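pinned: reference chain
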Amino acid sequence: MKYYIALSILFFTASLNAQSFLGSIQFGKSSLNYKIRLAEIEGQTEAYFSSLVMNAYEIPCQRATLRKDSLKFYVVSDHYVYEYNYIKQNINFKGHLKVYSNENEQLLNTFETNLTQETKNESEAIKKQNFSFTSNGLELFGTLWKPKNPIHKGMFLVTSSQGNDRSGTNAEASFFTNLGYTVFNYDKRGTGKSAGEWQSATIEELCSDDMNALEFFSITSSLPQSDIGIKGSSQGGIKIPYILSKMPELCFGISVSCPDGTLLESDLNHWKNINYPHIGKENIELALKVQKAGYDYLAGNISYELLVQESYKYSTEDWIKYVWLPERDVPKDYKLNFSGLPYFEMIKQPVLVIQGLSDEVVPPKSYKTIEKAIKISKPPNSRVITLADTNHSMTYLNKEFPYFQILNPVYLNTMTEWLNKIIQE
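pinned: its structure tokens
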């Protein structure tokens, strides 16, 4: 494979007159830590929310107002609105958080929370440097994260599914950088600032972009590939064994929420889990058969005539309304036919596989099949880990504080412990 790499003008990301504050919310025996960065842009106060345990980094807050003696802003999620109110006390703030339901605007709970100004040393621990590079004729944009105390190892974050840009991996980029890794993440083609179009691209083409980005990362950071590992989740997780097999000099891989079969099979499993309560036990298998035909047409595996023939048999059934049937002219998505399982049998580098046992996308026994494949290639220091009560995004429901999606702390600890072992050996 030939790599096309072009270095662009680089710049440091920094905010003038910015202040950062550390906050904590106590609930029962647990706590939720977060960080607020305030910046003045064109005479207006802007606030940015970060929390590692919520997988959030520099999320723009809404309606931020900073007055002489008070601070107020909102953070909005799919299900909740979080209203933060503070009164200034010297250089810090004392206040509370109110959580509202998005559905009916009902006040659900109120928590006390304070903000303490972050020291200059803490706020300057990580340096970020933005770049662009060329891959397969496309200009792609990424960020190099530089640690305060480097361990001279690199971590590359593989791109994932749908139209997600690099911001979706910024929290983990910050996490690994704080561990001492030099990190690189970038906007997948057709997302963020990057050129191109991801919808019709194959997994192999997207992996080609990842591998070109890895070459660029290695050159820019002056780290050899043998000191660089890769990490990916979901569709990114399924790409990990493929990339490791194609770039044998890489140091290690971490594959999270990776199905043992094709992406089509995992999408079908997700559809089943979502629609089972509506369709019921008696009809779910028939409905699943029709939905599979829909996905098979999308993946280019069957003709439109065969799809119509299959769906027509059940056109009078009440459950057919839950089945998604693509139109004839829908753009094909050949990514659905890709499986990473054969490549787990080829890799020689250490690999860590993590699956949540409450994953609504990945089939429940995927980790067992992947474990068998890894035993064929016998890579050293490889592990397959399962996490109870943990979903596809590695979050779990904390019953004491059900208003935030919180990363399972075992997930972060597992990666840290495994990486420490890899580095030592």
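why pinned: Residues 125-262+336-424 form a domain with the Rossmann fold fold (CATH 3.40.50.1820). The chain is about 30% helix and 30% strand.
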